[in-house]
Specification:
Structural class: alpha/beta
Oligomer: single chain
Radius of gyration: 26 Å
Strand content: 5-15%
Shape: globular
Strand order of the largest sheet: 3-2-4-5-6
Largest sheet: 5 strands, parallel
Helix content: 40-55%
């Protein structure tokens, strides 16, 4: 069977609906029509730029756009969503006196339908339900059409592949995964989202730390408040203080006006601090004070205000190791790690590569104007064999390039790969399946358990924390099994 699948929903909401309007009356009408249904998650936006950011960060299903929020009838969010987010259904709502504008815009942007205000609540509910149903049917038709076409091409695809329409692939907003490691991580992230605790995300460059931070924000009670991002790497203390805490006019040379600062701008929302390990010791003190008291003192000002902000921090270096070296404050580290999440590198979760490959093909096919049917088995084998020093970001860049050079309506094959991936050595296939040893059921189960523990330790390079997490054991439980079966690191 070919490597295509439906993505299983993992959030508590079945559908995410982005509502774009500057008209409080329209927002109230739509909210009243939809908020009673627990399967809907409603995200309110007041500008096209804000809506675009939400569509990029969320696993959205429907965009309801008020005509009042469309600044340009010839170039707008509805057109962009049609190209960059083809799986998101689109509805347009406008006042009756602007019916001609609604009709022209709906026709030019290919929205599912448009409605004129005032619209009855039951009509809005019906429009939303039908739009979501039609969009889901269209998505399934596209996937099944590819399945049918690919399944007839025996030379390109391995019929024995397990990934299919019913494959075990999940999605947490824009994070796509099939591996147990990521499933466990996302389950913990969802728990973190339901609290107000700070979150510390660690992982190598390109693993998706900002995506995870945004997913946590949009699954929290703060989802309709802003999330702001600040990269702390290579930024001076004064500049960082200005960016986060703000400044007043004349605080330093070039400060020609007051600056609010991200902590006050995001009041009620979330601030994501990337590369937190690069913050200087002196600024760590200011950050610790904010985490403890919520105090914001702009640069050059004697006035202290307060802000209710949840901090999500990220680092590609181990903060625990930096603490032991005396390079990072221990008290700040413990303040930041209300929840500590570590994203594994892509090379440690190769089960995710086919799922991510398909996701990026779907993402970029519309962007670059190529309808790509799928990925050939020879290319997928090479993609799975590569080590990915740049992690998911590197895979995404590779798929985007291959989609751009692939033939219209064709397949991505090995000849489309970059030289680094094409030359990656492929491990030889295993000789055969493991056969349990022993004269009774107990002995055979023990031999199977020994094999599973041993293979997991080898795959994780004897990192016992990772191996224990994969096997669902505690460190002590794993140590006992290593001792029981006499396993040794060769």
């Amino acid at each position: 069977m070919a490597s295509f699948f439906f993505v299983k929903k993992v959030s508590m909401h079945t559908h995410t609906i982005v509502v774009l309007s500057t008209d409080d009356g329209l927002v109230a009408e739509v909210s009243k029509a939809l908020e009673a249904d627990p399967s809907y998650r409603i995200i309110i936006c007041q500008s096209e730029r804000e809506a675009e950011l939400r569509l990029n960060a969320l696993e959205a299903h429907l965009l309801i756009c008020g005509l009042d929020a469309v600044e340009d009838l010839s170039e707008n969010i509805l057109q962009k969503a049609r190209i960059f987010h083809p799986l998101v259904a689109r509805l347009l709502i406008g006042p009756a006196e602007r019916a001609p504008d609604c009709a022209v815009l709906a026709r030019n942007t290919g929205v599912y339908l448009y409605a004129l205000r005032p619209a009855p609540i039951d009509l809005l509910q019906l429009f939303v339900k039908r739009a979501l149903e039609v969009n889901e049917l269209a998505r399934r038709h596209r996937v099944l059409s590819r399945e049918l076409k690919i399944s007839m091409d025996d030379d390109l695809f391995n019929e024995g592949e397990s990934l299919s329409v019913s494959g075990g692939v999940s999605q947490f907003e824009k994070l796509v995964y099939a591996s147990p490691l990521m499933a466990e991580l996302c389950a913990e992230a969802k728990q973190a989202a339901g609290t107000e605790l700070p979150v510390l995300i660690q992982g190598e460059t390109g693993t998706g730390k900002e995506l995870l931070a945004r997913a946590i924000h949009y699954n929290s009670a703060r989802m309709n408040s802003p999330i702001h991002v600040q990269n702390c790497g290579g930024v001076s203390d004064d500049m960082l203080h200005s960016e986060l805490f703000g400044h007043i006019r004349g605080a330093f040379t070039g400060a020609i006006s007051d600056r609010l600062g991200l902590f006050r701008a995001a009041d009620g929302g979330t601030v994501f601090l990337d590369e937190i390990s690069e913050v200087s010791p002196s600024f760590q003190v200011s950050l610790l004070r904010f985490l403890q008291e919520g105090e914001v003192k702009p640069l050059g000002s004697d006035t202290i205000s307060h802000s209710d902000v949840r901090v999500v921090a990220a680092s590609n270096r181990s903060l625990a190791e930096l603490v032991e070296k005396g390079e990072f404050r221990r008290d700040l580290y413990y303040r930041l790690k209300g929840f500590e999440l570590t994203i594994p590198p892509l090379r440690s979760r190769r089960e995710d590569i086919p799922a991510l490959t398909q996701f990026f093909i779907e993402k970029y096919s519309g962007v670059v104007g190529r309808r790509v049917v799928g990925v050939a088995q020879d290319a997928l084998i090479k993609l799975e064999a590569y080590q990915y020093p740049g992690n998911v970001r590197e895979l995404e860049s590779e798929i985007r390039r291959m989609v751009a050079v692939a033939e219209q309506g064709g397949y991505i094959s090995a000849r489309h790969l970059s030289s680094a991936i094409a030359d990656a050595p492929v491990a030889p296939a295993e000789a055969g399946a493991f056969t349990p040893q022993g004269g009774n059921l107990k002995e055979m189960v023990e031999s199977l358990e020994r094999e599973l523990v041993a293979s997991t330790l080898v795959r994780t390079h004897w990192n016992q924390s990772k191996a224990a997490a994969e096997l669902g054991l505690s460190r002590v439980g794993l140590a006992n099994k290593i001792k029981r079966y006499g396993l040794q690191n060769a």
